[in-house]
Design goal:
This protein is 44% helix and 19% strand. The chain is of the alpha+beta class. It has two domains: 5-87, no CATH class; 102-162, OB fold (Dihydrolipoamide Acetyltransferase, E2P) (Beta Barrel), CATH 2.40.50. The termini are far apart. The relative contact order is 0.08.
């Protein structure tokens, strides 16, 4: 390989490695193939510019260690300026405030009949065996007072249809 070509090839490998890392972070969802390729290309670009492979390997190890140290210092700094609170949801959902997880065992209602307490367009409330349930209609609007049948239960979602 020509000595004049090596710096350009190294620069191209380094640039393609950076591009692959950016694509991995922002564009390509997946298993890290582009990220691993980016790391390999960056390392190859550095090795191409080195005089000695041992010297280049030592430089890569030092760069990796400094990157890890800077990463942890960055996390510590970001926590001091409340960066994480600005980009995450800090509100807790307490039961006393009305937040509740979906009820367990809703499958027992499948096939039962009841009455729409509120209009369903498409979501609303029905009463089945004296219990109020939050449901979704299968075919659109159902007026309050309409007799309904529970068509299916999928996790916490109950789907109903009007009785004919």
């Amino acid at each position: 390989m020509s000595p004049d070509l090596v710096p350009w090839l190294a620069a191209l490998a380094f640039f393609l490695g950076l591009l692959a890392l950016v694509l991995e972070i922002f564009v390509i969802p997946g298993f890290g193939v582009a990220g691993i390729a980016g790391i390999i290309l960056i390392g190859w670009g550095i090795l191409l510019l080195s005089v000695d492979v041992v010297h280049a390997f030592k430089a890569l190890v030092v760069a990796l260690l400094l990157s890890v140290i800077l990463f942890f210092l960055g996390i510590k700094f970001m926590s001091k300026i409340n960066f994480w609170q600005k980009i995450t949801l800090g509100a807790r959902q307490y039961k006393e405030a009305g937040y509740m997880a979906p009820r367990e065992g809703l499958g027992r209602y499948a096939g039962m009949e009841g009455v729409a307490v509120t209009p369903l367009h498409p979501a609303g409330t029905v009463e089945v065996n004296g219990e109020r349930l939050d449901v979704v209609s299968e075919g659109g609007y159902i007026p309050a007072g309409t007799k309904i049948r529970i068509a299916r239960v999928e996790g916490g979602r109950i789907t109903v249809r009007p009785l004919q």
